[in-house]
Fold:
Amino acid sequence: MWLKLKIFFGYTILILLLVFIVYQFRQEQMLRHMLRKEEKKLVTIHRLAEKSYIGLLDLSTHAEIAVTWDDDDLSEYSRKRRGVCDSLQLLK
Structure:
């Protein structure tokens, strides 16, 4: 009788251990998925900030020669300004 009881408890412990391992594995998968989504979001924000920074630098260097502008230069500056403003709005 005791042997059957020991075997039963042994199998019960093994099954509980297996369930615990599967549960832990699933929790790790969910955490990894959440971290990857967060990482993608941060990478997108970083790229957008970098693009905005480069656009602002381009605008500032382009604006230094504003005295010699003609209509084409003004339209190009306006186009670049709108692009930078759109990038900054997305960051907001």
